[in-house]
Amino acid sequence: MESTLKRTWAEIDLDALAHNYRTLRAHVGGAVKFLGVVKADAYGHGAVEVSRLLQELGADYLAVSSVDEAMELRKNGITMPILILGHTPREQVGLMIENRITQAVTCRAKAVEYSEEAVRCGGELTVHIKVDTGMSRLGYLCAGRHFATGVQGICDACAMPGLKAEGIFTHFAVADESDEDSAAYTDGQLALFCRVIDAVEARRGEKFALHHCANTGATAARSDTYMDMVRPGLLLYGCGEFAQELGLQPVMTLKTTVSTIKTYDAGTDVSYGRLYTTPCTTRMGVLPYGYADGFQRCLSGKCELVTDHGKAPQRGRICMDMCMIDLTELPQVDVGDEVEVFGKRNRVDDLAALAGTIPYELTCAVSKRVPRIYFRGGQEVSRELLLRF
Question: Which of 39, 110, 130, 255 is an active site residue?
Answer without folding.
Answer: 39
